[in-house]
Please model this.
Amino acid sequence: MSKPYVRTNFHEARWDEPMIYELSTPGTRGILVPEVEDEIVDAVGDVAAALPDSLKRSAPLLLPEVDQKHVLAHYIHLTQETMGSNLSNDLSEGTCTMKYNPRLSEAMSMNPDFAEIHPEQDDSTVQGTLEIFYKFEQIMKEVSGMDRFSFQPGGGNHAVYCASSVMRAYHASRKDDKRDTIITTIFSHPCDAAAPCTAGYNVVTLYPDEQGIPDYEGLKKAVAEIGDHLAGFFMTNPEDIGIYNPNIDKFVELVHSVGGLCYYDQANANAFLGVVRAREAGVDMCHFNVHKTFGTPHGGEGPANGAFGCREFLSKFLPVPTIEFDGEKYFRDYDRPDSFGKVRGYIGTAGVILRAYSWTMMHGAEGLRMCANISVLNNNYLEKMLLSIKGLGEAFLGNGITRQEQCRYTWEELKNDTGVGTDDINKRVGDFGIPWYWASHHPWVIPEPMTLEPCETYSKCDLEEYYLSLKLVAEEAYDNPEVVLSAPHRQASHDLANPEDLDDPEKWATTWRAFLRKHGDKYLKVK
Amino acid sequence: MAKKIGVIVNPVAGIGGRVGLKGSDGEAILAKALALGAKPECPNKAVVAISQFKDFQDEPLEIYTYPKEMGEDEMRAAGLTPIVIGEIDSGHTTPDDTVRAAKDLLALGVELILFAGGDGTARNVLDAVGEEIAVLGVPGGCKIHSAVYAINPKTAGKLVLEFLLGKVQDLKESEVMDIDEDAFREGVLRARLYGYMRVPNEKKMVQNLKSGRGYGEEAALDLVARYIAFNLEEDVLYVMGPGSTVRGVMNKLELPNTLLGVDLVYNNKVIANDVNEKGILDVLAQYDKARIIITVIGGQGYLFGRGNQQLSPAVIREVGLDNIKVIATKNKMFSLFAQPLLVDTGDESLNEELSGYARVTVGYGESVMFKVNA
Model:
């Protein structure tokens, strides 16, 4: 077995890279777009002339004019200044779950026969892709116990929004139109409050009891007070602090007893894959983030998928189209009169579903359960090591409850002892070639937080490397706090010079034109 | 241009605590404390806070203070050079000196006053500067019910430093509370809400790097106020309690109001401002349906019994326990995370009935279930 190694001599590339607009030379082109052929012009005429004037720009687009070589170099430079995925020991992203993306899945998704199809193609020409969607739905049903799935939502938050829409359609179908409030918990993913709120619901949040478990007595009072306005209950389990709510059946029973629906946010299911299912918890709907649980890439805010599932009695409200199989062929079914509509175009990000299908088939049922077992074991091994570090504690430490797949730690003691807090430590860990960790969703609630989630991807050696790195930083905080407070030292990015500017609309800019208007050439590298 | 701040130290604050006298207000008590061998605690705490300013080197900093034990001595002990103004009778300082110092500093145009003391000191500063400039308290007294203090002297100094560096720009209205010390020494706790001052809002629950994603206290208050104002029911008498959050609702309704008093509102019109218990009961008798809207008062999280004694057990029972609506900003509730809300109405059985859980409105359509203890 290899031994842990802390990269004390790590150094990230720093390219001092200008912005792409600063590399622009008027007239330079990366691609010369061919002239439209005469035959096409003869057939369709002057397309531009057909556009109404109101749709035409009065001035040309302000785009950077850069040739291919320099565009490529520019973006490679930028990638070298980030800690990309599959690059280093990124067990640090608690609640987000970084997981290895197998190369086989990547290769399959890049197969041109698959990658170059278009969602507008006729069903008869995309039978293979529809078959994969259909079969992956059967797998999701088995893993969760739900009766139907939709892969239309573009990510976890979107799936929770989809759930809110299904919930509204369900209550409306029963002419039960008073139900305007949902209940969630403070350590659920914040989207369990935000998405229903966006869908128009009022939100009531429960705090934990002394053990760190959502407060059942608080739920009882909330349910009594909300009465027939209660639309549903949205919760993550285990919550973001890694504690499983063992009273979930009581919660579900109480909410059902007053006519509410129950939703399980299982974005990250690494604690219980193949061990427990949403159906047995009694809930009516759930979702998985396939990029957190089924081995697909975190797209850097790009393509993701929130696989949304529900029980049979809710399935008629699912977004259209669903994917069906009539015994001979697969097809998209739009003829669903009770559907609430759509949350997005088409049927979901095909490349992501293919990768997830590939990942799941590689593992098999036993493999899924092994992922959960290793994730929980990894987390508890790491927790035991980390809690030996002076200055580090944990939310609800000593409550006797075994943590599941992640932990929310707290550097409060270290901050009180040394003045070095979690933001400072976070900047320092990057100096050892490991990515910044996830502190916590906002608001912090737990002071000076740190949330780590070592899923099955990580080896014992990875866990020990992370532990040793954090131990080193904590020791620095006690011995020489200035080293930590002035970090980072060996990374491309440094402290924001004026973070408060982010609050000032006169300072921040989201377009190049706005940037120039607000700052002129003050911050340009190329003058 | 140089940055200007002011420093005031109440040298005798906290002197009563160690000898069990529950406060130091009044010269007789002070003499008694000294006779019992009390040693000043507050000046040392002030030195710890002031020492943090040594890290401010970005631009010139002028620190104005009063002579000797009211700031000058502490500044020198911290290794800093003060600009000394005013005069005192050293060894015999009084609350009037604090008021005068704060007024002088305000007139000099300082950006912030750092003061060390207890609830009485905070009241003196409030009397002098109100909400005109930023202030921050170094906890040095034996009674700290006011929310204008940092959690400890070091944090106070660091927070002022961040304010000077422009890293903390948001100010929050915070309660100045004090108890009736004569009654307190007789074993009766009666806390009053004296007013509000503006303190730097340390966003300790928000990651520094992402400050752009949060929103300030003003926006947080606006969300709560809008929601409540928008959802007031017709033909219901509203008993609007003291405090800045409730004032936010009244302002949203464009109704005249009293920050520290109870106002009565019916169908978007003020029936009466600043009503005492009897006045509230008289009006309640004329209306079929009423609701109380209150906010959480003070750093310790009181619903009833601190700063809103007009809302007596008789008033609460007349309105009905199911008709109490609690509102607060998110920051306030999150700062109370590990502690329950408190009720101390003076009526034990009512306290028990109010215990359990309260649904606190913290945003537009957003509320939290919070534990309430008697």
Notes: Chain B touches chain A at residues 166-167, 169, 204-214, 216, 330-331, 334, 337, 356-357, 359, 365-371 (CB under 8 Å).
